[in-house]
Write a structure and sequence with these properties.
about 120 residues, mainly alpha, two-stranded antiparallel ribbon, elongated
Length: about 120
Amino acid sequence: MKMITRFLWVVITVAIGLFAVSFSTSNATLVSLALWPFDVTLTAPIWLVCLICLGIGLALGSAVISLQLLTIRARNWRLQQNFNKLEKKCQALVESQTSHATSETTSKTPLMKVHK
């Protein structure tokens, strides 16, 4: 299964790469971009504009995912700490119950003696 997913990953990556190369070679038209809050106009090939937008999107997406993973790991760490504390308490309770039960059974005298 792992090999199939790697193969699919490679196929998809190569397909996207080929698409990007063919897109960039076929679209060399210059585009003028006006940056809204500033009075600046940039002129660049359309493939460069698309690649820059893709890079910005990938960077922002990875930043959001990284922050989410960080919060998930912190929550997991806190839950693991709570679980360990509860496990120790449970173990201590079980040990105290078993020691109490064994002390009761040894201290009791039998209610009835059977003679043969």
